Amino acid sequence: MDQIKVGSWDIEIDVNRTKEFYKNYHLITEGCSCDFCANYVLACDIFSQDIMNIFNLLGIDPRKEGEVSEYMENEDGTHLYGGFYHVVGRIIKGPNLWVPTKKGSEVSSPTFINYKGIEIGFSNDLVLVPEDFPTPVIQFEFQMNVPWLLN
Fold it and tell me: Could you say which of 2, 71, 118, 142 is the most buried, measured as most Cβ atoms within 10 Å of its Cβ?
């Protein structure tokens, strides 16, 4: 595993094992037929080089199954998307991604950092990890504006 720093996090990752998983995994649109997922998969082809670099650094094919949601349409016609993917690795050091919105609250808010045009974070709180995903696992979470490309 290689140790890298991404934003506020020092992580240890196995890029090759992560890439191998996503190479063989299915497209998001094979698990969901909604317009929001179809648009996201199309938009992956025009992500900026900086955004693709973060996915490549982690070994993730963003078109492949993760958990992606569309939250709203922005005034400029882009759409706010958020989601997460899994990465083979460990968090060595970094802030907690999810913190209570106020003291004693069960509701949490993300503490994303802006990293070259995408809001990102890493978490040990895992959700929807595919059964055959290699271990150890961390969750890469993101939020970004995506253009609407479907007619």
Answer: 142
In this predicted model, which residue has the larger pLDDT, 99 or 124? Answer: 124
Question: How far apart, in whole angstroms, are the C-alpha atoms of residue 50 and residue 73?
Answer: 23
What is the pTM (predicted TM-score) of this model? 0.92
Q: What dihedral do alpha carbons 49, 66, 99, 54 form, nearest 10°? A: -20
CA dihedral angle for residue 93, residue 98, residue 134, residue 61, rounded to 10 degrees: -100
> Side-chain half-sphere of 137: how many Cα atoms within 13 Å?
17
DSSP state of 27: B
CA atoms in the 13 A half-sphere facing the CB of 16? 2
Question: Which DSSP letter does residue 115 get?
Answer: E
What integer pLDDT is reported at residue 67 of this predicted model? 93
